[in-house]
Specification:
Blueprint (H helix, E strand, L loop, with lengths): L1 H15 L4 E7 L4 E6 L4 H15 L4 E4 L2 H56 L2 E2 L1 H8 L3 H9 L6 E3 L2 E5 L13 H8 L4 H9 L10 H4 L7 H14 L2
Parallel strand pairs: 2-3
Antiparallel strand pairs: 1-2, 4-6, 5-6
Helix pairs in contact: 1-2, 4-5, 6-9
Length: 234
């Protein structure tokens, strides 16, 4: 028994030399060793528990109350809760920013589509020199007709561009072009061009460009279609 007491005392001394210690209680009758520590090596604890088992011939009752570990667990749990709250707050902020950006993204998407349409239309346009050759007149005359709003023209990278569908099969400028320009607006060049690409019920559900290819196309219907198109735009 003296030998075991010496080992128990050694164990208590060993515990006291650990970095963190609170209390050591030993009941010699029951074999209960109650520790309230945070840094007792498991090997030391097992060794003295085994010594007591050998001395008394009964299984020891050995427990470790690690307060430091509990504190760490609480700190980790608190940190996780804080991170989750921060993450939730950031998620809400991101969603709010997305809602604010959606109109701008829509506008950008629409602008990109509009630019694609314009580029497609530009492929069927020529500059004043080429159109003058088609109408058998000079470039100066073409520019004069443009300034008098008798020709549809749009600005491009290298000057003005003119749709070729303004010229009839005989090589003459359609006489109703100036009326369409006046109806839709002299400053709405791209709207004028869009009108000629838009199907109309007044033109048998064809666009003005397609309708003009008919041998019996009626020019006054195109003017009425322009009026109808202009009314729908406002």
């Amino acid at each position: 028994m003296t030998k075991f007491k010496n080992k128990t005392q050694d164990f208590e001394n060993e515990v006291k030399n650990t970095p963190e210690r609170v209390n050591v209680q030993h009941d010699a009758l029951t074999g209960q060793i109650e520790l309230s520590v945070s840094a007792v090596p498991q090997a030391i604890a097992s060794f003295y528990a085994h010594s007591f088992y050998t001395q008394k011939g009964v299984p020891p009752s050995f427990s470790v109350n690690d307060n430091s570990s509990n504190r760490r667990e609480k700190q980790v749990s608190t940190r996780i809760d804080n991170l989750e709250r921060e993450n939730h707050s950031l998620t809400i902020q991101i969603e709010k920013l997305k809602m604010k950006l959606e109109p701008y993204e829509r506008d950008m998407s629409e602008l990109e589509q509009l630019n694609d349409i314009k580029n497609a239309y530009l492929k069927n346009m020529v500059q004043s020199t080429v159109l003058g050759g088609m109408l058998n007149c000079t470039r100066q005359n073409i520019n004069r007709l443009r300034r008098e709003y008798k020709l549809i023209a749009v600005n491009g990278k290298n000057g003005h561009y003119f749709p070729t569908w303004q010229i009839d099969p005989s090589g003459q400028l359609y006489g109703f072009i100036d009326k369409v320009i006046s109806i839709i607006g002299v400053d709405n060049q791209w709207t004028q061009i869009q009108f000629f690409h838009t199907p109309s019920n007044l033109l048998e559900k064809m666009s003005p460009i397609t309708y003009l290819a008919k041998s019996d196309a009626k020019h006054d219907l195109i003017v009425k279609a322009a009026e109808h198109y202009n009314e729908q735009s406002y």
